[in-house]
Amino acid sequence: MEWAGTIQDMAEGINLFSVMARTALSVICGGILGIERGRANQSAGMRTYILVCLGATVVMLTGQYMFDRFSTGDPARLGAQVISGIGFLGAGSIIVEGKTKVRGLTTAAGLWTAACIGLAIGIGFYLGGIIATVVVYVVISKFKSISDHFTHNDMILRLYVEFDEMSDLQPFYATLESFGLQVLDTTLNHSKRSGDYNAIMAIKNPEDRTQEEVTGYLKKIQGIRKVKMIY
Fold first, then answer.
1. Taking every pair of C-alpha atoms in the chain, what is the biggest distance, in angstroms?
2. How many other C-beta atoms are found inside a 10 Å radius of the C-beta of residue 192?
3. Beta strand segments in the chain, E
């Protein structure tokens, strides 16, 4: 199996094959995590995650290149700077919402982990980077319902709503109240290009209705184009 040994040597060293492989893998892993956050309407989406993971990969590639080429440098030290420096992105994704709660912590933690995955891929630890990507994706996409079951965070729901006119918003509020829901906070947005309106709402759910019940009921309201739960 000489060919297997040759491929392994190429993958572990600094050459065109390994640089391209690590770069492509970091884009894929970062993109997978970012797509999930984008679906949840978070500010840090696919492109942000890709850039974070790719940047960390480039840092480790540079550290390994410096060590191999000039017999100097410390890849571990460069990686440590990435881990501590990524905090500015994480802090920017955390938002304190008036009457509800702090949100964005999962996205911030995901960005930090994406940087760590990039470091692993950048130094050639392919298996660790791939396994970590799978685990992180499962945690951020599937574990929320489990977490809410134990912490009762499902009392507060976050909705993304698209509607035709501003006048549609007041009947929407009235319908929410008649359904046993209470609006805590609303962030309104208006697209000048398309003329559409959308809002992000924090909704109190004292009657513990399921998310499917809430979204299904609200989608039937006239003038409402789209209702989506935000995680």
1. 72
2. 6
3. 95-96, 102-103, 156-163, 182-190, 197-204, 224-229
Distance CA 158, CA 201 (A): 6
Residue 127, Cβ density class (10 Å: 0-12 exposed, 13-18 middle, ≥19 buried): exposed
Q: pLDDT at residue 149 above 80? A: no
Angle at 11 between CA 10 and CA 12, to 5 degrees: 95
Residues 199 and 221 sit within 8 Å (Cβ to Cβ): no
Report yes or no: 175 and 216 within 8 Å, Cβ to Cβ: no
Distance in angstroms (rounded) separating the CA atoms of residues 130 and 121: 8
Q: Quick one: CA dihedral 119, 121, 123, 127, positive or negative?
A: positive
Indicate the average pLDDT of the chain. Answer: 77
